[in-house]
Automatic annotation (TrEMBL), chains A, B:
SMART domains registered for this protein in UniProt: Flavin_Reduct
Protein name (database record): NADH:FAD oxidoreductase
Domain of life: Bacteria
Keywords, comma-separated and alphabetical: Oxidoreductase
GO molecular function, one term: FMN binding
Gene Ontology biological process: pyrimidine nucleobase catabolic process
Pfam families found in the cross-reference section: Flavin_Reduct
Length: 175, 175
């Protein structure tokens, strides 16, 4: 997709602009034909509340993204401080996933559910739109599952962080 | 779009799930046929770096959203701590916009540019996708403009906040 000069320059500047743009961290899971799949996301946003629709993007080349796109439904978990190891395991290839220690349960509908996440939103894919090497995914929300309260996990400047403000007097597990 | 019972229940639970999902705050501006327009966004995400494409969503009913969708180009600013009044002015109707105090400049290409923002990404609309009362907007990025360094502004749980971590040793203006 690259052309030399200006185009690459825009790509690098664009990456730099987003490096410091903070994003809540989410984990999407599903049950694909080959088994459970999961992927860490920093691009989840609400598009519409009625109908309830959310959006995220994935890099199409990865196996996990293919699995999520092929799964009949998806479960988007909002992660909390203390879940950095899980976020990391599902962000990089070759990390252990769905281990006993991570504490996933299986919903009656088949998706891996992480009850230690703050909350999870279950839905079916409404539309996908390819954009270069990525795909934008719109999810029609069917249900919302309560998890465990915690300080929202953030990703910014290539590290995980969390927000502890006076307005959110939440105990933040460290470690 | 509402039906009684389950649907509304999902809508309320969905709003609750996103209430605590932190998001970086951005301001999109453009020059519409009727003059400059701007809108505060908490849904900006990178979709692809090469080609450089970002996504955000707007509520189609508002005049500002219509202006952005009609403008030949758009400028997405990433806001910093201290810019809460500007974020607020462009998030609600009836607030003063593009005042001398807010410090906008006009780019040679016509868009209002806020040099006090951390950085701004200029582009043209690649695609829009209606989703219920909203529209998802994909922006093809043409250029990136440096602004003024600062701690990224966040929106979470109905208030603005900023992240001051050990990794981001940035002086945070308050007030």
């Amino acid at each position: 997709m690259s052309t030399p000069g200006l185009e690459n320059d825009v790509t690098e500047k664009f990456k730099g602009a987003f490096r410091h743009h903070p994003a809540g961290v989410a984990l999407v899971t599903g049950i694909a034909p080959d088994g459970p799949v999961g992927l860490t996301l920093s691009s989840v946003a609400s598009v519409s509340a009625d109908p309830a629709v959310l959006v995220f993007s994935v890099t199409r080349a990865t196996g996990s993204a293919g699995g999520i796109l092929a799964a009949p439904s998806a479960l988007v978990h909002f992660l909390v401080a203390g879940q950095e190891p899980i976020a990391d395991a599902f962000a990089r290839t070759g990390q252990p996933r769905f281990t006993a220690e991570q504490g996933f349960q299986t919903l009656p509908t088949g998706e891996p559910f992480l009850p230690s996440a703050r909350i999870a939103v279950r839905g079916t894919i409404r539309e996908t739109h390819p954009v270069g090497p990525s795909a934008l995914v719109l999810l029609d929300v069917l249900d919302v599952l309560e998890g465990t309260p915690g300080a929202p996990l953030l990703y910014v400047d290539r590290h995980y962080d969390s927000l502890v403000s006076s307005a959110a007097a939440v105990e933040v597990p460290r470690g």
